[in-house]
Specification:
With 269 residues, the protein is α+β, with helices and mostly antiparallel strands. Helices cover 26% and strands 29% of the residues.
Length: 269
């Protein structure tokens, strides 16, 4: 049985990152087939095809050693695992097993070093294969889908202590709680015994005009989420989305590293 070739659908993709008030950039970004980690990446836009593309953001956990290296190592390992083993998921797309492989590679690279053991990072990634999209995440870096009809939803799932309390009915969504509850419950850790971390996966079929945002918590924790997402829907293109977001985060003092990738899907994007 032969598989019909994928239609080369256009993706307009824009990205930016900045170290904020943190002197070290601990975020990393998988973009155009390589891991980027810049203290300051001004907004820029590129056009790709969606035939087989991986985009990802990893946010090194500041309280862990080797946070900058952990984020970059995890992204490279994730891409390598997907390229080598697309068959690990039944649909041929990025899946939980690829994330587990990235954590294993993180352990191989850092866990044996006394000053690097426990290096940690969040991860959110989007794999596009034609008009199909797979999103995986562990931690609190997020993915949002903005439909052309204005409907917006978070595709990722936060792995925080607060989200755990919300899921168990012990806390209410939309209510402000002490910052300690925002601590991570799960992420990728350079520790061979920490291999049971949570990974969320979601797949959807994209339509022309759909928009996707990947970002670290240096974006969504700083900005008012409903207002920011409404602004994103009104923005005319991905470059405007990342430019507007970057300006807003910097105006709010940019207390943390922040990274963002925005893309519009469709032949006429």
């Amino acid at each position: 049985m032969t598989t019909a070739p994928l239609t080369p659908t256009k993706l307009r993709v824009a990205a930016t990152m900045h170290h904020g008030r943190n002197p070290q950039q601990q975020d990393a970004m998988w973009l155009a087939g390589e891991a980027c980690q810049h203290a300051d990446m001004p907004p820029h836009e590129t056009t790709f095809t969606a035939d087989n593309r991986l985009f990802a953001i990893a946010d090194g956990v500041a309280t862990s050693p080797g946070a900058s290296r952990a984020s970059k190592t995890a992204l490279k390992a994730l891409a390598d695992a997907l390229n080598a083993h697309p068959d690990w998921s039944f649909d041929g797309m990025l899946g939980v097993r690829h994330v587990r492989a990235a954590q294993a590679a993180l352990c191989d690279a850092l866990a044996s070093r006394a000053l690097a053991w426990g290096s940690s990072t969040t991860l959110v990634a989007a794999h596009l294969l034609g008009d199909r999209l797979a999103v995986v995440n562990s931690g609190d870096s997020r993915a949002y889908l903005i439909k052309s009809n204005g409907r917006t939803r978070q595709l990722s799932r936060d792995h925080t202590e607060l989200q755990h309390l919300i899921d168990s009915g012990q806390a209410q969504p939309g209510t402000e709680y002490a910052s300690v509850y925002q601590s991570l419950s799960d992420c990728l850790i350079a520790d061979p015994e920490a291999d049971d971390f949570a990974v969320h996966r979601e797949t959807i079929q994209l339509q022309t005009g759909d928009r996707l945002i990947l970002c670290s918590d240096g974006v969504h924790d700083v900005l008012n989420e409903p207002e920011w997402l409404a602004t994103m829907h009104a923005a005319p293109d991905p470059l405007a989305m990342v430019t507007t977001t970057r300006k807003a985060v910097l105006e709010h003092g940019a207390p943390d590293n922040f990274s963002m990738i925005a893309m519009t899907f469709g032949v006429d994007a």
